């Protein structure tokens, strides 16, 4: 038996704004440690000795996140990850179906399906649960993991489970999925001992899932099969057939298959493995405070933070010192372009702020001031009428696309490293403290031929400074036509 991780990484995490944005969502952020949530998910089976683990995870994501996901996986030493790009969002069931087709090309592994944006504090307990689930999945069961509830919670869906299965350690039969309850119902669920929080983590053989989805949703199965059959490799990425996938219905793993199992045993046995491993879906800032390390007053800090006469408060400082004085049950999140202050009981309302920003057409809901690209990143440090100033860092050996702008000219000043500049038909080097001018309409390119990061200051001037004023002629990262 071989276990293969399937990591679902398509969510936007808007309730963790302003740290999480649509173009750089929560799974890409280091919220609980040095690694991002995606990286922690990919590392969760390290040292797992119960059976073989394929070191090449399948990550299902979208076009926008592909380069930063590839870079984050490279940083933790993930070997040859299979990054599947969805051309459109269709929820988790189609994502898993695509992953099952990819996995089936090399056998019939047991798939461990994990959202990329969850926290698991006790990895050893998690791996013990996975070991039990893997044995059941290898025998043809469709396994879900039910989180042992620590308190009545109205923000999660629940799973009702039966008695412990014969011969199992803790696994129970799956009886029912139920929606998020009200407070009184949630209390009754927890008191009964029959209900678990729905973790969204699953295990099953690839063939078992493909058979089940074909019986439960033939249209989804057909669309995903055709989309996977038309898959094309693009550097580190697997591009599925867009036309076929856009015909696919949208549904979750729960609704598409798992909730049918109690009444359709021919699909396979539905099994719940109880899991008590410090799990959280980090759905809002108060949930992050609950799983974070705290001082004696219950305060949790990330970044440069000073607490004075404060209790049970979470502060995330990304760019500067934040001093919290006399705060109780508060959340403060500071980023270079936005600050959010909320009572812990109102953190779910962050999504209302994001909705207002979108309605007003403001980019603060979509992107950070600092934007990551496959070649490095840029930070828009100042802007005004007809000008914009960016700090640009290019990774060693990387280069931007050969491009041209219709509406702006650019000045480049090298702050650190050596730049290789293409401007029209000229190619030349710039050292630190040297600069050059790129006229409007001139074909140009910036590259880093050195072994250290290249840092420049770019001053743009012109009548329109939007990122869509780029005409690409050559690109090392497949962005022409995508």
Automatic annotation (TrEMBL):
Nucleotidyl transferase domain residues: 4-297
Lipid biosynthesis found in the keyword field: no
Record bears the keyword Nucleotidyltransferase: yes
Highest taxon in the source lineage: Bacteria
EC number(s) per entry: 2.7.7.13
Keywords: GTP-binding, Isomerase, Nucleotide-binding, Nucleotidyltransferase, Transferase
GO molecular function, one term: mannose-1-phosphate guanylyltransferase (GTP) activity
Reactions performed catalytically: alpha-D-mannose 1-phosphate + GTP + H(+) = GDP-alpha-D-mannose + diphosphate
Residue ranges constituting the Mannose-6-phosphate isomerase type II C-terminal domain according to the UniProt record: 361-475
Family assignment from sequence similarity: Belongs to the mannose-6-phosphate isomerase type 2 family.
Protein name in UniProt: mannose-1-phosphate guanylyltransferase
Origin species: Thauera sinica
């Amino acid at each position: 038996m071989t276990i293969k991780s399937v990591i679902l990484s398509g969510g936007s995490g808007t309730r963790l704004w302003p740290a999480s944005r649509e173009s750089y969502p929560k799974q890409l952020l280091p919220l609980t440690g040095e690694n991002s949530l995606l990286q922690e998910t990919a590392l969760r089976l390290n040292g797992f000795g119960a059976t073989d683990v394929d070191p090449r995870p399948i990550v299902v994501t979208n076009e926008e996140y592909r380069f930063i996901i590839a870079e984050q996986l490279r940083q933790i030493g993930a070997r040859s990850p299979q990054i599947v790009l969805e051309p459109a969002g269709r929820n988790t069931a189609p994502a898993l179906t695509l992953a099952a087709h990819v996995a089936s090309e090399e056998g019939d592994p047991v798939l461990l399906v994990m959202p990329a944006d969850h926290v698991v504090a006790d990895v050893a307990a998690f791996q013990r649960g996975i070991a039990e689930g893997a044995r059941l999945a290898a025998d043809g069961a469709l396994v879900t993991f039910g989180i042992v509830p620590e308190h009545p919670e109205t923000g999660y869906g629940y799973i009702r489970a039966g008695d412990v299965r014969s011969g199992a350690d803790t696994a129970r039969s799956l009886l029912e999925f139920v929606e998020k309850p009200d407070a009184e119902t949630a209390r009754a669920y927890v008191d009964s001992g029959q209900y678990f929080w729905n973790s969204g983590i699953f295990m099953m053989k690839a063939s078992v899932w493909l058979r089940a989805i074909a019986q439960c949703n033939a249209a989804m199965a057909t669309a995903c099969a055709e989309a996977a059959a038309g898959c094309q490799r693009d550097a580190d990425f697997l591009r599925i057939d867009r036309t076929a996938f856009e015909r696919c219905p949208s549904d979750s793993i729960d609704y598409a298959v798992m909730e049918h199992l109690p009444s359709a045993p021919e699909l396979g046995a539905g099994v719940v493995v109880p899991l008590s491993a410090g799990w959280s879906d980090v759905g809002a800032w108060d949930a992050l405070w609950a799983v974070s390390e705290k001082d004696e007053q219950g305060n949790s800090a990330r970044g440069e933070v000073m607490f004075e006469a404060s209790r049970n408060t979470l502060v995330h400082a990304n760019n500067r010192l934040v001093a919290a004085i006399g705060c109780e049950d508060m959340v403060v999140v500071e980023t270079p372009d936005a600050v959010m202050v909320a009572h812990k009981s109102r953190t779910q309302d962050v999504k209302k702020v994001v909705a207002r920003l979108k309605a007003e057409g403001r980019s603060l809901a979509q992107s950070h001031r600092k934007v990551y690209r496959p070649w490095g990143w840029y930070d828009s440090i100042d802007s005004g009428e007809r000008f914009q100033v960016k700090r640009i860092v290019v990774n060693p050996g990387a280069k931007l696309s050969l491009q041209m702008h219709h509406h702006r000219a650019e000045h480049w000043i090298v702050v650190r490293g050596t730049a290789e500049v293409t401007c029209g038909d000229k190619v030349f080097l710039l050292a630190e403290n040297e600069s050059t001018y790129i006229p409007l309409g001139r074909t140009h390119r910036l590259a880093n031929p050195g072994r250290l990061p290249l840092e420049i200051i770019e001053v743009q001037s012109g009548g329109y400074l939007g990122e869509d004023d780029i005409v690409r002629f050559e690109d090392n990262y497949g962005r022409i036509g995508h």
